[in-house]
């Protein structure tokens, strides 16, 4: 098809047309996500970009989600079906008690009672609502794709006629252990255990899933070890960056001393405390060094305490709710992008920073080396939880412009070669077709 013909038909001239044989026909996909807003972390980014790329490939995608609702690219034909919860953690009134007239059924009562006992109910209650919703729509989807809900309601969907594929970005048991390790006192540890009580359910469900997609080899190993899923049921499909959006732009001026990082939550997993500690050491060598954190400024807790102890309140800026274009320019204008996490199942911030050509300093926690690449070739790599090593890498890169340019160019090339959303969508579709084929063979036995 020529570009002119594509414009007349509404097709994308940059995308090949899908074959129309029975095994390659466009699919009707239900994408489930109990937490889909892209400003709430990586799961929301995953839903937005994967659904867009699946639609670009010619598939029909309906996202079924709860609050905070996903932000989707509607111009590609991706639709959103809202499956509302009681939204118990919404701002500015988190952990609220609903009014009597808000209750609709027993699932709502379960959601509130779990919150009252200190647990996190959303994965379970969303899965129950999703099952009820899908059961009322027989034959409308070729495959259901669950985005790490791992709730009891998803078990047995195949018997309702819905082949199931589930993405596990990484086991939440890792987050649980890191928070327990950082907890101060038995009361805090008890609170962490109650909150993460849903991980017992997720472990039981994961072991019974027919097809699991994960985003890195590191996550695959963790899923086998922590959740007990059989290795033959787990398939790695790397995710990636929006390389058209996250791209170099020489017109954006570099701000001397600027370091940028993403930390969507003040949790030990993100390692922000160690970056703040490192910044104090960096500023002793380079007083113009400063940090911009994409995330909400904590009013209390380890990060706030560390900033106050080192007198860094004016050297650390937090930005929240910025647009995609503002985020890209923020990363482009930084001398260094930093990922200080203790663990990542993939690390979208690393891939996105590399895609802009911004040199990267990153830890070796979890899958980060799989994304960021070899130390000294595409990034500077340091051990997780080591503020001294982090400071040394930042000081080295701030003082060596040639090294920065070399790392930035190599990082961009690595992302283009290995980590794009189109590649992710094509790999995911392969998993869909395998799941559909397996379900069909089971029915015909």
From TrEMBL:
It comes from Streptomyces malaysiensis subsp. samsunensis. GO terms for biological process: lipopolysaccharide biosynthetic process. InterPro entries: Glyco_trans_1, Glyco_trans_4-like_N. The keyword Transferase applies. This is Glycosyltransferase family 4 protein. SUPFAM superfamilies: UDP-Glycosyltransferase/glycogen phosphorylase. Keywords: Glycosyltransferase, Transferase. Residues 41-244 form the Glycosyltransferase subfamily 4-like N-terminal domain. Residues 1-22 are annotated as: Disordered. Coiled coil: none annotated. GO terms for molecular function: glycosyltransferase activity.
């Amino acid at each position: 098809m020529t570009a002119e013909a594509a414009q007349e038909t509404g097709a994308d001239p940059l995308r090949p047309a899908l074959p129309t044989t029975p095994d390659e026909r466009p699919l009707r996909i239900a994408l489930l996500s109990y937490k889909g807003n892209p400003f709430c972390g990586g799961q929301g980014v995953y839903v937005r970009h994967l659904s867009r790329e699946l639609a670009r490939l010619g598939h029909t995608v309906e996202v079924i989600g709860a609050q905070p609702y996903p932000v989707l690219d509607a111009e590609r034909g991706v639709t959103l079906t809202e499956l509302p919860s009681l939204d118990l953690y919404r701002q500015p009134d988190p952990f609220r008690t609903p009014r009597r007239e808000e209750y609709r059924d027993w699932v709502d009562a379960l959601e509130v009672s779990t919150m009252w006992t200190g647990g996190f109910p959303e994965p379970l209650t969303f899965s129950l609502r999703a099952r009820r919703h899908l059961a009322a729509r027989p034959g409308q989807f070729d495959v259901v794709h669950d985005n790490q809900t791992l709730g009891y309601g998803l078990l047995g969907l195949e018997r309702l006629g819905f082949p199931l594929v589930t993405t596990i970005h990484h086991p939440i048991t890792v987050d649980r252990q890191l928070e327990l390790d950082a907890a101060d006192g038995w009361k805090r540890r008890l609170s962490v255990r109650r909150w993460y009580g849903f991980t017992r359910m997720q472990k039981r469900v994961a072991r019974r899933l027919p097809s699991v997609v994960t985003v890195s080899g590191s996550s695959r190993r963790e899923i086998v070890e922590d959740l007990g899923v059989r290795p033959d049921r787990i398939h790695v499909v790397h995710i990636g960056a929006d390389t058209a959006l996250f791209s170099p732009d020489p017109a954006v001026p570099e701000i001397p001393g600027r370091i940028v990082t993403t930390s969507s939550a003040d949790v030990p997993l993100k390692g922000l405390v160690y970056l703040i500690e490192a910044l104090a050491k960096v500023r002793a060598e380079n007083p113009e060094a400063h940090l911009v954190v994409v995330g909400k400024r904590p009013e209390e807790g380890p990060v706030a305490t560390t900033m106050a102890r080192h007198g860094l309140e004016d050297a650390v800026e937090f930005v929240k709710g910025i647009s995609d274009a503002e985020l890209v320019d923020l990363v482009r204008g930084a001398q260094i992008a930093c990922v200080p996490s203790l663990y990542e199942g993939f690390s979208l911030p690393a891939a996105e920073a590399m895609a802009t050509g911004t040199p990267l300093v990153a830890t070796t926690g979890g899958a980060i080396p799989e994304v960021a690449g070899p130390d000294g070739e595409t990034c500077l790599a340091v051990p997780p939880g080591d503020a001294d090593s982090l400071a040394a890498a930042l000081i080295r890169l701030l003082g060596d412009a040639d090294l920065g340019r070399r790392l930035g160019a190599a990082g961009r090339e690595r992302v283009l070669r290995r980590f794009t959303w189109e590649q992710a969508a094509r790999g995911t579709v392969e998993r869909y077709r395998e799941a559909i084929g397996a379900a069909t063979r089971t029915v015909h036995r």
